[in-house]
Structure formats: C-alpha cells, structure tokens
Specification:
Strand content: under 5%
Order of helices and strands: HHHHHHHHHHHH
Number of domains: 2
Number of strands: 0
Radius of gyration: 23 Å
Number of helices: 12
Length: 350
Amino acid sequence: MTPKDRKHIRIWYWSGAVLVFIILIIGGITRLTGSGLSMTDWKPIMGSIPPLNEAQWEEAFDQYKQFPEYQQMNRGMSLSEFQIIFFWEYLHRMAGRLLGLVFLIPFGWFLIKKKFDKTQLKRTLILLVLGTGQALMGWYMVMSGLVDIPAVSHYRLAAHLMLAFIIFGCCVWFALDLKEKQKSPGKGAAELNKWLAAFMVFLIIQIVWGAFTAGLNAGHIYNTFPKMFQFWFPPELWLYEPFLMNFFENMVTIQWFHRVIGTVLGLMVIFIWLRTYQLETAFTTKMWALALFALTLLQYAIGVFTLIHHVPVWLGVLHQAVAMILFGIVLGFMHFLKENPTISAEFVQG
C-alpha cells in the first residue's frame, strides 16, 4: 500500500471507532430511558422510514400495545410519550445503519481500486462479520424482552455491549497499526505490557458485570458507598444455589462484584503508574500511564456518583462512555509499548 492509501484506510478505521462510540452513547440513553422495546419488529431496509403521519403513529403505537412492556409497565401511556421512547430506539437503529454505510461504501471503493493488502483485507472482513453479528445480536436482545417479561436478557445485553467494544477495539488497533512510526517506550516495556494485559482482563470482566448490573437494574439497590448500607458483605450475597449463580443472577452479588473489580482496577492502575517511574521509562510512556491512571480514577468516581444518585440518565451514559474511552486508552498504551520489542527484550535480559 502507498502512504496515501494507508492514511485513507486509517481515517476510515478511526471514523468507525468514533461512530461506534456515538452509537454506544445513544444506546445508553435508549436503555436508561426504557426505550429499547418501543420498536417491536426488525426491518433492516423498510425500518429506516419512521411513521410519517398520525395514522402511521397510531398503527405503531397499537403494535406496541400488543407486547408485555405496555401491558405490564406502560399501560395508559399517551401517544406523545410513546413517540419519545420510539425516537431513541429509532435513532439507535439509524446510527447503526449509518455505521454500516460508512463501512460498506468505502470498503467497496477500496476493494475495487485494489487499495487493500492481504492484511487489511482480512481485517476488514473481520469487521464485516463482527458488524453483521452485532446487528443480529441487537435484534436477538430485543426479542428477549418481547415475551412474558418486559426486560431484555442481561446476558444478551452483555453480549451486545461486548461486541460493540470488540468492534471499537478492532477499529482503534487497526488504525494504530497504520500510523507513522512513533517514539520508543524506553526501558520496561515488556513488563508494563504484561501488567496492562492483566489490567485489560479485569477491565473486560468489569465491563461485562457492568452490563449485568445495568440489565438487572442492580444499580438501584444499596445506593451507598463504600459500604452497602451498613454492610461490607450484604446478607443477600450468597442466596442462590449453586453458589456460582450468585455472580450471574443475584443482583446484590453482581453489584458487589462490580464494586470489587472496580477497586481492583483502581489499585492496579496506581501500581502501573508508579512502576513507570521505577523502571525509568521514557517520558511518553509516563504520559500514557498518567492518562490511564487519571481516567481510571475518574471512572471510579463517576461509578460511585452514578450509584449514590440512583443512576440518573446522564451519569449512567457518562459512565458507559468513559468505560469505552478507558478501553481505548488501554489499547493505545499496549500498542505503544509493543512498538519496540528489542529494547524490551534487552531490559528483561539485563
């Protein structure tokens, strides 16, 4: 590929990452406003056209009335109230369609013009599969809330969220791989990369359990910090049998576990930040570590305020958005550290 082609493809990857981030924010608003089940069918093409007149709005509203969310939770809702929740779900779906167009149109052009090398072609095909899977997972998630209980499966919600993070992460990593050569991270890169890999594992666990917390509305109980009311270990913590099911089904345990992993991440990031000074790393490495340190502690604080204020929409969305930014920072830091394996190896051997 020519430098110009690399630049264009890199911009394309970054545009995908930005759009996924925007969709995440809209999706967060959709979930927190209870809008996700307002559109009760999935029409990838015709679904792009919203109701355009009063008769069409009444038809859409009548269709919504046939499902459990209206019957069990929103009975008596006015048409204007329905239009508000419909708007957020419609916007979320349209943003997803926009992302599809932003991917497919440049992809077709790059392919026809033979701008891809083998590596980039494989990577774009991976993104195509992930994007298609995400669209299907979104509808699969919505389906779980259209029967019996008007709430989507927290497992499907977590899968939908993690696919968004994976697509975002791929876009970021692929874009970073196409940038110009950067400065050396200096000594200690190999060790720091191992710590970052461990941090990433705990961060992924935290994101999944954050989705469980959101899906089960576990953020609306025990709204105190650092204790859960007067308890470090609430009495409902181990009610379920078998024991492990508490971590997946018990909303008290899920919130407690989310707190614990968040604290572990906070302690880990303090260690990583201090370690960059002990290892005499390059200035840029220290700045990456400082950014990771500051953002992790900021996210911790946002999580606490979200909890104690009973998950207002703006704080819940902010908490989710900062999680994706944090995920991107970890990827960027790891990518920076892998740039110079020779120096890292010399440090380890010495």
